[in-house]
Design brief:
mainly alpha, 148 residues, single chain, Dna-directed Rna Polymerase Ii 140kd Polypeptide, Chain: B, Domain 6, two-stranded antiparallel sheet
Length: 148
């Protein structure tokens, strides 16, 4: 929802996933470098607000350009008894050791981007050409090909 993209790098059993102090496993781990490189700060804010809303037992929906402010989100985290910065100490599911740094956790909507190779692949040996340039037509929909 915030322009983040990536690939599924590894699928692990639940017992090997990092977990919160109360034992709740983390379901998805995202690369933290995706936030500054894609400039999707809204993703972090949604994560924090989602965590506070989950802890307080309500769902929230904010307008696109008039959403909750950072101060309002911090207040909700405080009300829920969660750290204001939205970070927790996580433990490694394989060793049980805590990670060196506190990590941003929360609830966020993740959607699958439906770009599959089978839908995108296109090749041709013969096909239509432009009457003007005598080059192959562009675009898969017109059964075009690469131009030289």
């Amino acid at each position: 929802r915030h322009g983040n993209k990536g690939v599924v790098a590894k699928i692990l059993p639940e017992e090997d996933l990092p977990y919160l102090p109360d034992g709740t496993p983390i379901e998805i781990c995202l690369n933290p470098l995706g936030v500054p490189s894609r400039m999707n700060i809204g993703q972090v804010l949604e994560t924090h607000l989602g965590w506070a809303a989950h802890a307080l037992g309500y769902t929230c929906s904010t307008p696109v350009f008039a959403g909750a402010t950072v101060d309002e989100i911090k207040a909700e985290l405080r009300t829920a008894g969660l750290p204001e910065d939205g970070k927790m100490v996580l433990r490694d599911g394989r060793t049980g050791e805590p990670f060196d740094q506190r990590i941003c956790v929360g609830y966020i909507y993740m959607l699958k981007l439906s770009h599959l190779v089978d839908d995108k692949i296109h090749a041709r040996s013969t096909g239509p050409y432009s009457l003007v340039t005598q080059q192959p037509l562009g675009d898969k929909a017109q059964f075009g090909g690469q131009r030289f």
